[in-house]
Specification:
Blueprint: H1 3-19, E1 25-34, H2 61-70, E2 76-80, H3 91-107, E3 111-115, H4 121-128, E4 133-135, H5 143-148, H6 157-170, E5 174-180, H7 186-203, E6 206-213, H8 226-242, E7 248-250, H9 261-267, E8 271-275, H10 290-299, E9 303-306, H11 320-335
Parallel strand pairs: 1-2, 1-8, 1-9, 2-3, 3-4, 4-5, 5-6, 6-7
Helix pairs in contact: 1-11, 2-3, 6-7, 7-8
Bound molecules: iron/sulfur cluster (SF4).
Length: 339
């Protein structure tokens, strides 16, 4: 990049950041999603993403590179993968592919963020050498989740909590979250948030908690009703009270009616997550454009600002190479003029 243009852009970006009210800032990450495979040994009852194992489910590195080159502004490469059973002879090849996709993202000047289910300590450490942050939804606890996850060994609560603790011990900046509206009780929700708060107090590595409303996909797709929104607004307020203040609260903006998004922000949401051109999990819910989001939020007194997949305050936690890359990309984002 031309250094003068870069410097001017940087000053413009800094000025705007300095003038912002930090309590009215909402973050998002320019993101592109790669799906190394949709094959998955789990069978969660609500999943529309999974496919039966087949070679045609596997993304090639060449196709991944083409996708990344088409989206040069996407600093985050979300690697969202179906899972191979621990102990399967296929597991080593699956991990090698995740590492190869992560390496590809870095080689093209981006930052990978992998969410591929529970990992052994060795697997997590290997991915964390290439990924500045990793993710795994806690999902939730209680009878409703147990019913939905009868055929999903990866979704056992103790295993998920163990993963969050393992990430804490390894010092990996981590994203987690809850899947909401699947029949869970209010006390199930609050208990899940309390468990996350305890983990954060112990390890300090949770950068964000996603509050993800479950939505029917395909022909059954419909926006959240007013009653569903009120129920979730109450939960957002509870999450903001229960979770330590430094943990960002994230809501996927395509799963919430845009006209009432400011209500969710007033309740405690301060992050809209990675925004790609489409949502590979909830394909029937189109992503709003960041420009549209910024304009709408500005009218309601909020400022939308881009971030990396790893939140700024965790950059000092990273190994030297990832720290250097993240710092450079962070400066580029500030200079980019992106909303
Ligand atoms: S683990 Fe994820 S990809 Fe696999 S069946 Fe469950 S929701 Fe689908």
């Amino acid at each position: 990049m031309n250094s003068l243009r870069f410097a001017a852009g940087w000053r413009r970006g800094r000025g705007r950041e300095q003038g912002d009210d930090p309590t009215r800032l909402v973050r998002w990450s320019p993101s592109v999603t790669l799906v190394p495979t949709r094959s998955c040994f789990n069978a969660c009852a609500y999943c529309g993403f999974r496919r039966e194992p087949s070679a045609t489910n596997d993304l090639s590195l060449a196709a991944a590179e083409r996708s990344l080159r088409q989206r040069p502004a996407s600093t985050e490469v979300l690697l969202l993968s179906g899972e191979v059973a621990p102990g399967s002879p296929e597991r080593a090849r699956w991990l090698a592919r995740l590492l190869a996709f992560s390496g590809l993202a870095l080689a093209l000047g981006r930052l990978p963020h992998t969410n591929a289910g529970p990992l052994s300590r060795r697997e997590m450490a290997a991915l964390a050498r290439l990924n500045p942050s990793l993710g795994l939804m806690l999902e939730g606890l209680g009878p409703a989740y147990e019913r939905l996850h009868r055929a999903a060994p990866s979704k056992r609560l103790a295993l998920r909590l163990g993963q969050l603790e393992q990430a804490g011990r390894l010092g990996v900046p981590f994203t987690t979250g809850l899947l909401l509206g699947v029949g869970e009780s209010r006390s199930d929700r609050l208990r899940a948030l309390e468990l996350l708060a305890e983990l954060q107090r112990q390890w300090g590595h949770l950068q964000e908690v996603i509050l993800q409303p479950w939505r029917p996909d395909g022909a059954g797709a419909r926006p959240l009703s007013t009653a569903e929104q009120h129920d979730l607004l109450e939960l957002i307020e509870a999450a903001r009270r229960i979770l330590p203040a430094q943990v960002a609260l994230q809501l996927p903006p395509n799963l919430w009616p845009l006209e009432s998004l400011p209500l969710a922000l007033e309740a405690g949401i301060n992050d809209l997550g990675g925004i790609d051109s489409h949502d590979v999990i909830n394909a029937a819910y189109p992503q709003p454009s960041p420009r549209e989001l910024a304009a709408r939020l500005e009218r309601a007194g909020w400022s939308l600002r881009p971030r990396l997949c790893v939140h700024d305050r965790f950059i000092p936690w990273l190994p030297p190479d990832l720290r250097r890359r993240s710092t450079a990309l962070q400066s580029q984002l500030l200079a980019s003029g992106l909303a």
